[in-house]
């Protein structure tokens, strides 16, 4: 079975990392995959795919309106003749029309979340999704929120929607850094967040809350440290904010990491301050790393974080609520350890990669038709 996965760009990101996990954990026998990138890909990120025979193609879409790439996509699909095309999110949705014209028998579309807090309420994106819906065989929603959006806002029949949550590699992400040093009062508590330094991730909220936490902690502030791992367009703005709050000695912005398990192992507590999310891969990775998680109440956060069990949920954009949640863990290291253990337990029981891969396997097998076609020579292959 040949599956073409269409993405805007194949580079470091939660959506793209999900594709890597799917390809690495589906059975190798009986599957062949091609990744079609509208605007390009990162060769180092592509190298994370361990499955054999995965081809990657780029369509070199220019910024803005560029209908020429649709013609190139049509030609490539006619040459590859896949059994299934699987697009992700709104920016690849128009590729479904090309796949239909190219005669691809099964067309799946995944909704992973939103890039801004108001994206799910705007009328135009919902209308676009409605227009393309007759061309789509099956939808994949990564969270209950996106499933509800598709059924109520877009008008997709629930029978056409499959909800498949992301999974996490519980062998690669494991509990690492212990909280305690000589004693709980002397231990350094490292609060951390990992992700793109973009507006939607709202790291400004975390920095402002951390500054107030330091004020509240008084003499105990010496044992508190904040680490924000990642890079992106908001980096300079965050650096400026840290300087303006005069907390440079307690905050680190080390840039992007190519070893997220190691970065997670250096944390005591994970915070996700986003304005919008789907099912967050980094929250899952933090849970598998044995960390308590504080998240804003967005996207699929409540499907991962159970308040009072493995973390806390705070109001979106609410600095004071985040300070209170942080303070509870500063005051009670034992609660922090307990919630971290519960996070690991949830990751093992409910969110393993094996569970996720099995659900995608059933989806693809249930919606497929054998094509018997020969492949076009790949641009790159692993």
From TrEMBL:
Coiled coil: none annotated. Residues 188-337 form the Glycosyl transferase family domain. InterPro entries: Glyco_trans_1, Glyco_trans_4-like_N, Sugar_tfrase_PEP-CTERM_Stp2. It comes from the Bacteria. Residues 12-172 form the Glycosyltransferase subfamily 4-like N-terminal domain. PANTHER family: GLYCOSYLTRANSFERASE. This is TIGR03088 family PEP-CTERM/XrtA system glycosyltransferase. The lineage of its organism: Bacteria, Pseudomonadati, Pseudomonadota, Gammaproteobacteria, Oceanospirillales.
